[in-house]
Specification:
Elements: H1 3-15, H2 19-30, H3 40-56, H4 61-69, H5 71-74, H6 77-86, H7 91-109, H8 125-132, E1 136-138, E2 148-153, H9 154-159, H10 167-182, H11 186-191, E3 193-198, H12 208-219, E4 228-235, H13 239-251, H14 254-257, E5 260-264, H15 267-275, H16 295-313, E6 329-330, H17 335-338, H18 341-358, H19 362-378, E7 383-386, E8 393-395, H20 398-421, E9 428-434, E10 439-444, H21 445-460
Parallel strand pairs: 2-3, 3-4, 4-5, 6-7
Antiparallel strand pairs: 1-2, 7-8, 9-10
């Protein structure tokens, strides 16, 4: 299978859709679809209609069993709201998704875990060990459209098949758990998730067990707690890649298949192609040599277990989030904070107001800092810091947010002073003057800078 034959397969599925359905699939893949405006009236009406649809459903053995085991869990408002968000508030589709959810949950986790939230400890020893090895990871950053991104390294994932007696169940639990963790976040519920099946360099044979496992993984898209907005399949053209790709396509329905995109080539080619879809490849868990990276995954797993312990003790703060949005400003020091999109955006705003800020009195500076905090809130951002107990991100007070902005202005002033203090210092560099002979000469950049400065001053004064 080459790139063109896989794209032809997707094109055939798209041809079966209406124009409106095709546009919706395209918008989902590229993350440009409009979010549902969740008014209190809409939520209450859809929750009521969802209950009616569930009562009418007669093919719901697992759902009915879960309801008998725990009416409180099955009727939980937050749980049902997740299914409504996953189906863009279509009560009929939400009811079908909820029934599938319990069917698959019963198959994977059994009766004893059917009517409860699955935790890390519920996975069982084999699935916990498999998860620790990082075959499926949640990226520490969202894509450019604010969606959570899950990467399945197919070589690592499928290599575990031979290690377990029931690999389809063992590894199916891993994917289920990772998606459920990602969906445990309000913004992810609203915007959906992106799944990347990464098979570049995979040497896995397409036997029956592996095809069954990938087919089951594709089927999960219609049963999990978050909407799968897009699936990206990365591979090198080979017969084994073709067979594994067909297993994924065969397992998913039309809704999933038309949201699939393929990327063929080397590690660098596929990852740069993913970047065009808004994926932050700096956080990608596979390097350009095909080596699996575990640092971010290990931290994520540690934070997740801390969160589950805090939830068990009921000490998680209201509004706490797992994964900050691209608009949020993170309080902290170091490169991970400075490189966050929300922090970069705040830095640009501070740069725009820097001259004005320096000309103000203290009380006026406080007012400007408050205005910038309000500006961040208006475009959907929050000022967040990591809670020490739960390891989750919580919103800080307006005072802390203003202090963050004021600190940004101080840092900007310090950097300007440092730049100014370096003016006049000798700095010699080698400059190429002839490409053919490769001749180079030493240039004192101080002299060049001084010359440029005098010229610009001369022009300004009308002397040039």
């Amino acid at each position: 299978m080459d790139k063109y034959s896989s794209e032809k397969l997707i094109a055939e599925e798209l041809s079966k859709l209406t124009i409106q359905e095709r546009e919706k699939a395209y918008e989902d893949v590229h993350g440009v679809s409009n979010l549902v405006e969740e008014s209190p009236e809409l939520i209450e009406r859809c929750l009521l209609e969802l209950k009616r649809e569930l009562d009418l459903n007669k093919n719901s053995f697992a759902y009915d069993l879960a309801k008998r085991l725990s009416e409180k869990y099955v009727s939980n408002r937050k749980l049902r709201l997740q299914f409504l968000r996953a189906t863009l508030f279509d009560p009929k589709k939400a009811a079908l998704r909820m029934v599938r959810f319990f069917d698959l949950k019963l198959e994977l986790f059994g009766t004893e875990n059917l009517a409860k939230t699955i935790t890390f400890e519920d996975l069982g020893e084999n699935s916990m060990n498999a998860l620790r090895q990082g075959p499926i990871q949640v990226l520490p950053s969202r894509d450019n459209q604010g969606r959570a991104v899950i990467v399945s390294n197919q070589n690592s994932f499928l290599s575990l098949v031979d290690k377990y007696e029931r690999p389809v169940i063992t590894l199916g639990r891993v994917l289920w758990y990772v998606i459920a963790c990602a969906a445990d976040d309000e913004e992810t519920q609203k915007r959906g998730i992106v799944i990347i099946s990464y098979a570049v360099g995979s040497q896995q044979r397409p036997d029956a067990i592996r095809r069954q496992l990938l087919g089951q993984c594709a089927m999960m898209a219609d049963a999990v707690l978050a909407r799968v907005s897009a699936v990206h399949y990365c591979f090198r053209a080979s017969s084994s890649a073709a067979a594994l790709w067909r297993a994924i396509v065969g397992g998913g329905g039309t809704v999933l298949r038309v949201r699939m995109r393929t990327h063929s080539g080397s590690h660098s080619e596929c990852q740069y192609s993913l970047a065009t879809f808004g994926i932050n490849i700096a956080d990608f868990p596979v390097d350009m040599n095909g080596m699996l990276k575990l640092a971010n995954h290990t931290k994520w797993l540690e934070r997740r277990q801390i969160k589950e312990n805090c939830l068990n003790l009921n000490i998680v703060k209201d509004g706490a989030v797992d994964l900050p949005s691209r608009f949020d400003v993170l309080l902290g020091r170091g490169k991970p904070f400075n490189s966050h999109p929300g922090n970069k955006r705040l830095h640009e705003i501070i740069g725009n107001f820097f001259i004005e800020y320096n000309q103000l009195f203290r009380s006026q500076k406080t007012k400007l800092a408050a205005d910038i905090v309000q500006m961040v809130h208006e475009y959907g951002g929050r000022f967040l810091k990591q809670d020490e107990e739960s390891a989750m991100w919580v919103e800080v007070s307006d005072l802390e947010a203003r202090n963050k902005v004021a600190h940004g202005f101080r840092r900007k002033r310090e950097s300007e002073i440092n730049v100014g203090s370096n003016v006049g210092k000798s700095s010699v560099v080698w400059v190429e003057v002839d490409k053919e002979s490769k001749k180079r000469m030493k240039v004192d950049t101080t002299a060049v800078s001084a010359s440029s400065t005098s010229m610009s001053r001369g022009c300004f004064c009308g002397e040039g």
